[in-house]
């Protein structure tokens, strides 16, 4: 290996006919392109033996050099120090067409001064959950440059394939208006839509050919009102409401009642008031503190099996103060039990036979589930779950959070999709 080839290799470049001087091919200094950062500056000359004239396309050896021009090229950094190649390029005369041209090595686009290896490194960094600002700082480029790279790649929805048997949909992963949908089997996010308005959803999915839409057999979703209309464009699909959302609806109803009851309890003077304060001041080693949060954790972690004796005690104490809460708790627990045992009919029976004494708001929230009876029944029995998509939602939120928000929805969408593609690649 020649002297120049070894240096080329150490710069993460392939053999590319760069010629480095035998001495002083590297120095530390400030380059125009890296500004205030002291850089390792390499000096090299590029004078390829055979060059193709871009105008007439003639390939020739030993052309006459007309002049030399020098420019800086940013390379991938070494540790925390930027590396710059001070590249002197030969300018050739073309005897065939009379023009002049300056060949550039493979890692630089003509007239660019950031090498393609930096671009590739930035692209690969989309795999890591990192904000664009940090990626830019790592490679000594501007964030705008990174966004430009992101803009150049096209993870556009091609509207060709939808051959999956099931589609999971989830609203509000990022903000109130967004919707994400994923493959039911692999749980890969297929796309993120900025709007989940009825008309927008319809026009979006109509982009898929009918033959693809016919293949969709199951659509798993939450209880969003605009979704049932989608069935019109997926004629073979069945709507399934995911169990998670059913439980969420119930636990929300129960929690609202609990908060209301606790407020009532707080207002009471005398012993009950004291009891409330006692309960809400109860310290608990396994939870963050107040009775309120304990009960919340318990009601939320119903399926996770966390049920310390201390918590059960607090719940019992709390329930004993309010008849309504006790009744609602029974309904809630029965519903959860039947649901987790996949007893669809029993579940609906619990909801249909609510005790009259329960507050109207609670009854209303529970009865709302009856509107989607058949979809919920399928949800209880079907193997599909929106749970994995919930995990993806968290990933989306994390990416958004790390970046301190995104100026453009398009960028966020691309970054999430790219992240998914790249992390799957290895
Ligand atoms: Zn020519």
Shape: elongated
Bound molecules: zinc ion
Instruction: Bin the strand percentage.
Output: 15-25%
The figure for the number of domains is 3
Average the pLDDT over all residues and give the rounded result: 77
Give the % helix: 40-55%
How would you sum up the major sheet? 6 strands, mixed
The tally of beta strands, per DSSP, is: 13
How far apart are the termini? 32 Å
Order of helices and strands: HEEEEEEEEHHHEEEHHEEHHHHHHHHHH
Task: Please tell me how large the radius of gyration is.
Answer: 32 Å
Uncertain runs: 281-295, 300-307
By secondary-structure content and strand pairing, the structural class works out as: alpha+beta
Number of helices: 16
Describe the structure.
The structure is a single chain. The strands form three sheets. Strands 1, 2, 3, 6, 7 and 8 form a six-stranded mixed sheet that branches. Mean pLDDT is 77; it is low at 281-295 and 300-307. The chain has 426 residues and is of the alpha+beta class. Helices cover 44% and strands 18% of the residues. The protein has 16 helices and 13 strands. Helix 7 crosses helix 8 and helix 7 packs antiparallel against helix 11. The chain is elongated, with a radius of gyration of 32 Å. The chain has three domains: 3-113, no CATH class; 166-241 and 388-425, Ribonuclease H-like superfamily/Ribonuclease H (Nucleotidyltransferase, domain 5, 2-Layer Sandwich); 243-381, no CATH class. The protein starts with a helix and ends with a helix. 27% of the residues are buried. It has helices at 3-10, 116-124, 132-139, 143-152, 198-205, 210-215, 243-267, 271-281, 291-300, 309-321, 323-340, 344-352, 360-368, 373-381, 387-402, 409-425; strands at 18-19, 26-30, 38-46, 50-52, 59-61, 65-78, 81-93, 100-101, 166-171, 179-183, 189-193, 218-221, 238-241. Bound molecules: zinc ion.
């Amino acid at each position: 290996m020649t002297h120049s080839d070894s240096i080329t290799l150490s710069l993460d470049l392939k053999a590319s006919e760069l010629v480095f001087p035998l001495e002083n091919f590297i120095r530390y200094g400030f380059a125009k392109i890296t500004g205030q950062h002291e850089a390792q500056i390499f000096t090299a000359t590029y004078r390829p033996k055979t060059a193709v004239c871009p105008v007439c396309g003639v390939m020739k050896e030993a052309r006459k050099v007309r002049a030399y021009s020098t420019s800086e090229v940013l390379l991938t950094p070494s540790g925390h120090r930027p590396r710059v190649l001070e590249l002197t390029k030969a300018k050739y005369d073309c005897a065939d067409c009379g023009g002049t041209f300056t060949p550039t090595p493979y890692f630089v686009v003509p007239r660019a001064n950031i090498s393609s290896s930096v671009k590739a490194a930035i692209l690969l960094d989309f795999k890591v959950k990192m904000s664009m600002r940090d990626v830019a700082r790592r490679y000594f480029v501007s964030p705008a440059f990174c966004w430009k790279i992101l803009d150049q790649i096209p993870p556009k929805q091609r509207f060709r394939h939808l051959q999956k048997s099931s589609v999971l949909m989830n609203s509000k992963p990022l903000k109130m208006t967004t919707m994400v949908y994923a493959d039911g089997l692999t749980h890969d996010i297929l796309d993120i839509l900025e709007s989940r308005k009825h008309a927008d959803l319809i026009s979006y999915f109509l982009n898929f050919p009918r033959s693809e839409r016919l293949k969709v057999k199951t659509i798993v979703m939450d209880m969003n009102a605009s979704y049932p209309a989608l069935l019109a464009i997926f004629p073979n699909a069945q709507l399934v409401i995911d169990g998670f959302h059913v439980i969420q609806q119930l636990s929300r109803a129960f929690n609202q009642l609990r908060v209301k009851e606790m407020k009532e309890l707080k207002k009471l003077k005398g012993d009950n008031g004291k009891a409330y304060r006692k309960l809400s001041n109860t310290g608990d080693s396994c939870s963050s503190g107040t009775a309120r949060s304990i009960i919340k954790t318990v009601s939320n972690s119903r399926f996770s099996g966390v049920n310390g004796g201390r918590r059960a005690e607090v719940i019992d104490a709390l329930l004993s103060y309010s008849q309504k809460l006790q009744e609602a708790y029974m309904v809630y627990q029965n519903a959860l039990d039947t649901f987790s045992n996949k007893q669809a009919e029993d579940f609906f029976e619990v909801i249909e036979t609510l005790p009259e004494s329960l507050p109207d708001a609670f009854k209303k929230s529970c009865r709302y589930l009856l509107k989607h009876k058949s979809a919920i029944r399928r949800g209880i029995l079907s193997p599909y779950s929106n749970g994995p998509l919930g995990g993806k939602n968290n990933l989306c939120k994390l990416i958004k959070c790390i970046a301190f928000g995104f100026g453009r929805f398009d960028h966020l969408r691309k970054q999430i999709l790219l992240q998914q593609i790249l992390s799957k690649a290895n």
